[in-house]
Specification:
homotrimer, alpha/beta, Udp-n-acetylmuramoylalanyl-d-glutamate--2,6- Diaminopimelate Ligase, Chain: A, domain 1, ten-stranded parallel beta sheet, 16% helix, 29% strand, UDP-3-O-acylglucosamine N-acyltransferase (chains A, B, C), lipid metabolism (chains A, B, C), UDP-3-O-[(3R)-3-hydroxyacyl]-glucosamine N-acyltransferase activity (chains A, B, C), Trimer_LpxA-like_sf (chains A, B, C)
Chain lengths: 340, 340, 340
Amino acid sequence: MEFTLDQIAALINGKVEGDGSLKVSRLDKIQEGKPGGIAFLSNEKYEQFIYETEATAVIVSENFKPARSIKCNLIRVKNAYTGFSQLLEAYSNITKMGKVGVEQPSYFDESSVQGDAGYRGAFSYVGKNCKLGNGVKIHAHSYIGDNVKIGDHTIIHPGAKICSDTVIGSHCEIHPGAVIGSDGFGFAPQEDGSYKTIPQIGNVIIEDYVSIGANATIDCATMGSTLIKKGAKIDNLVQIAHNVIVGENTVIASQTGISGSTEIGNNCVIAGQVGIVGHIKIADKTTIGAKTGISRNINESGKTLFGFVGFDIKDFLKSYSIFKNLPSLQDRIKELEKKQ
Amino acid sequence: MEFTLDQIAALINGKVEGDGSLKVSRLDKIQEGKPGGIAFLSNEKYEQFIYETEATAVIVSENFKPARSIKCNLIRVKNAYTGFSQLLEAYSNITKMGKVGVEQPSYFDESSVQGDAGYRGAFSYVGKNCKLGNGVKIHAHSYIGDNVKIGDHTIIHPGAKICSDTVIGSHCEIHPGAVIGSDGFGFAPQEDGSYKTIPQIGNVIIEDYVSIGANATIDCATMGSTLIKKGAKIDNLVQIAHNVIVGENTVIASQTGISGSTEIGNNCVIAGQVGIVGHIKIADKTTIGAKTGISRNINESGKTLFGFVGFDIKDFLKSYSIFKNLPSLQDRIKELEKKQ
Amino acid sequence: MEFTLDQIAALINGKVEGDGSLKVSRLDKIQEGKPGGIAFLSNEKYEQFIYETEATAVIVSENFKPARSIKCNLIRVKNAYTGFSQLLEAYSNITKMGKVGVEQPSYFDESSVQGDAGYRGAFSYVGKNCKLGNGVKIHAHSYIGDNVKIGDHTIIHPGAKICSDTVIGSHCEIHPGAVIGSDGFGFAPQEDGSYKTIPQIGNVIIEDYVSIGANATIDCATMGSTLIKKGAKIDNLVQIAHNVIVGENTVIASQTGISGSTEIGNNCVIAGQVGIVGHIKIADKTTIGAKTGISRNINESGKTLFGFVGFDIKDFLKSYSIFKNLPSLQDRIKELEKKQ
């Protein structure tokens, strides 16, 4: 999509210095600007790049005074960062939200309903008795099972799989390939060493403003619901087991796994590749460092945890700094022993 | 799906106390019971909830005597837990096994055959020369390559990908998004630092009663077969590399990875986020704790391993408890040295 | 596909000893050979198997002299390993590259173009303004968004998702279920504890001869490009975050995660389940052991790193060997203290 500099200046309430009829089709970093792109200059550290950039235009603040001559066009706004953010959001809305209507072939059971202004891509599948709100986008290859509810303005990206009975709130994004509501991992050991599958009849409930990453997996509850609360952000390839509760505005980075029936509090920050055992509770505002393993309740809120089995981070770093010196420590002990 | 309490009582050989014409459509936990749901009371610890539950009905054992008045309806059976389990299984069979027939559009090469009472969802793909047994369910968006064999009553969930030449036994479940038979990760280093792809021409064989989790990946063998033996249960996001063998009734939890050509014995239990190097053997009945790394053969069966490179769990915990005290240990050494 | 031994001998420039009209349809390991298969004998260690194998034929070197009688047919070539490699590659080309043409139903926006000799499977989706080169294979259920460019002879395996604006070079393989160009994980914290989504408007650029594993995820850049350079090989379930750069001929094994804006050098080898923090640089030719965590720049090229926070491997192993002996070390300190 192409826009003239004049159109962009009108959108972000700015003033063009240069040729307002020139067209741009891309947002660039100032240090990597190329013809046809528009960048911004906010941080003084980057000022050097405005004299060299090949970008067609740069958004600058009202009070910017170039030290030397500039070859690109300028759009002056009150605050360059704010102006660029507005442009970024407008651009993102146009490119991501633009699709409306139904592509064919697609499958939509006649017992299901979809609100206004929605999109369903080719090869999307919607099963029985589903209710999709207004502005819901079901991209190509998405699977929506039976009895699924999806709130207004939620986006189901290509190839995401929403299994039967799942409930998703409004303004959520389910990224490509994510699986929501697959069977929990429950098997009853039998006397002969084999396992019998325990039927998993619960569901997944995802509240409003939640994001689920690409190829992440969230299992349904054995009974009841696996629950992802409002505003939680879950990254790619994360595993959430049956009956887990993830609190409001909790952030979970890539490849972390949370075992069955564990409850994570509100406003926690959990880094990548963390593992958390089942049937425990993590207090609100807990921060957990990358690769940490957590095997017990965290009762006090606001703690930062790190290390192989989830020490307090200060304790871990103390022990760990000595771990590095174990060889010399051992030598010192030998020396002491010799002197006895 | 709705059933009357009379219908349910007939199914589980029980007797209604209350209004047998009332309908329920959901199995609830007793502590979270809502109108339209049926729960059960087996463990005495939960007795308090039967006096408060909003569930329409609760399944109780013959000899249950309420201490106070109860507002919900009851279904009395010999053993409440057994009765509920029967109901759970019946419910699960109805909701999961119910689909029969072929939805359109779907793709089925004319050289392939499918047995009786099967299901193929819209946008399912079945390539050339496939043999699908009786009662096989190929859900929407599933991909079945060429020359694939699938035994009776196996379920391929939405969007699972079964690559060419894979053999799957009967009564298996392949969960959504799982990839079976993708190319092994094999590259031959060249003199200029680049890598040449080694053709991967083997396949994957999955025996009966195996479960493969959502978005798990199982690579085909370079030559020969990657083999998942009877009754093995593999969780979401697990990686099984080329030529691996997983033994009978072995359970592998989420996000664990097993490198090429390793053989895992029968009846092992491997927790989440474990990593196992290639070309080793793990004895039968080995238990491996979460996040453990295993880099050598485990020859003796029945061991429990834990820790960064797979110690015996007792040894690990001994060292680890001291690791926590390294700072004080170091202080003690300093003190000793001063006294010399 | 079946071939006579005469046909195979012609292909690999060999000479049949036995019945050249017999047909084989499979490449076998010599120790697992079955009728209808052809194996090879190169390494003397395996010679015993040629006297027992049930394979229809075995490829042997010119100078092979059997010690006893052999029941299978032979194909003699100059070098058995080379001959078999030729056969392996031919077989792989036939089975993998064979598909040409377009299966229906498939979706291809009229603004997009595809070169000659390509393949598009049923239920494949190609959005607007895409340019697909010659010999490109888009397998069933693959998703190609808008404005995507794919170079000659690249294979997009079943169910892979290539999001809008992605650029992929020639001779690449994107394995089943991989997600390329999904949104980066970027959220700006708000005063009330909630997070606002930061629009992700960059893309992913994948150069020539790159392989991306099954169900791996590569996020688009916030702005600019996430870049996978020429010849890089990335395994199943790997996570590459926004704005990461992976160098030429770098190999990354399964379940490793690389956080945002990190730059990995050329010719690195990164084992499985490694975690690398964001905004750091890893020098060329760095080797990183399995499960290692890397939290700082690696400036010197050619190092081998291992351990929980990425020690030099020799230092780690020294400390680790003592870690195992911490209990006895503690006892020795106690003993020393008693003697004071």
